[in-house]
């Protein structure tokens, strides 16, 4: 195995798995910490999907270290710790502690931290993370339901989380190419936030990072890694994916601006939609049977079930229930609906939101995923393993995808 990756959420893992597959590697995405004696077959990259992003740091460290052990035992030559391209975490967050722990496990003193993903408008310049034209701290991420991001200076943000010293390798160095950057990495002590504003920068970083045992970042920084292991470039499979017959559904638990736009576009296009009210779920006024009745009522269509709401509405619910309990209420409900839909014969699930996808995939009992065609950057169709029937799953990161995502995704299934 060339690359063994640990991702802190499910959609992030799928995003990374797609990136590695597009660059030619045979990739297997596994769900949860793999068993110690796992056989990954012929996979050249294995991406472990955890649900650790919002867990207390010590839990995230334990899960990440356990995953690293299995990946290293299976021969991983490089470890990759994948977190969100918007650096989702709190000051008590996981990115620093997990990076510290993986460095210690590997006996290494240096790594990079680069969440840049330019195709999805995440760039890092002078150590500051931009989302589109805005600093992270001015972007809608300042209102994220679980980890509001209020500081765009990643040296500072990671510095508050990690014991390992954090410094910056700025654009002036990256722009001089892989050899100059590799020299800077040789001199590095600790973790370097590395600037990147284009795919060319990410390929430079990929080449320069060839000798690092640990890479950390978004999926973008994986762009240049497969080439370090392959003798010649390989073309990815772009054919539509065969999917089991059965009904399809869209489940949206993300409250990101992109998902809210996708919900609005789907409704405007005539998709039957059921809006969930988190308080009504918490108080037992909305039950799983209501969702079942709704999908049965729209037997000829692809129904949308969504809890996506504006920041003010989310805040109001959180004030009553607490931030995590509000999230869990919706996640548990969508997980229960998913189980019921599977029993009802649904085989195609499009899910919006990383935490939401984690809950849905757990409810379906999926143990691994094979990557299929790309719907939009960072979001492929996948096929489930471990389920009695193969299911088609599209697990969309909250902020990814064009406005018509919920409508167009189905064209890639046959
Ligand atoms: N109406 C709501 N009120 C309060 N919390 C909600 C509501 N709808 C969803 N949530 C919770 O908000 C969280 C959204 O996180 P999720 O990871 O699914 O989406 P995201 O953060 O936009 O996506 P990603 O992690 O892929 O960027 C979940 O815990 C979800 O249950
Ligand atoms: O990096 C991203 O933005 C995504 O893969 C993700 O992690 C969203 O949860």
TrEMBL record:
Stored InterPro entries: 4-carb_acid_sugar_kinase_N, 4-carb_acid_sugar_kinase_N_sf, NBD_C, NBD_C_sf, OtnK
Catalysed reaction equations from the record: 3-dehydro-D-erythronate + ATP = 3-dehydro-4-O-phospho-D-erythronate + ADP + H(+); 3-dehydro-L-erythronate + ATP = 3-dehydro-4-O-phospho-L-erythronate + ADP + H(+)
Domain Four-carbon acid sugar kinase nucleotide binding: from-to ranges: 249-406
Top-level taxon: Bacteria
Domain annotation Four-carbon acid sugar kinase N-terminal: ranges: 3-224
Keyword terms: ATP-binding, Carbohydrate metabolism, Kinase, Nucleotide-binding, Transferase
Entry's EC annotation: 2.7.1.217
Entry GO MF terms: ATP binding; kinase activity
Gene3D superfamilies in UniProt: Four-carbon acid sugar kinase, nucleotide binding domain (3.40.980.20), Putative sugar-binding, N-terminal domain (3.40.50.10840)
Pfam families cross-referenced by the UniProt entry: NBD_C (PF17042), SBD_N (PF07005)
Similarity annotation: Belongs to the four-carbon acid sugar kinase family.
Its biological purpose: Catalyzes the ATP-dependent phosphorylation of 3-oxo-tetronate to 3-oxo-tetronate 4-phosphate.
Entry protein name: 3-oxo-tetronate kinase
Species: Arsenicitalea aurantiaca
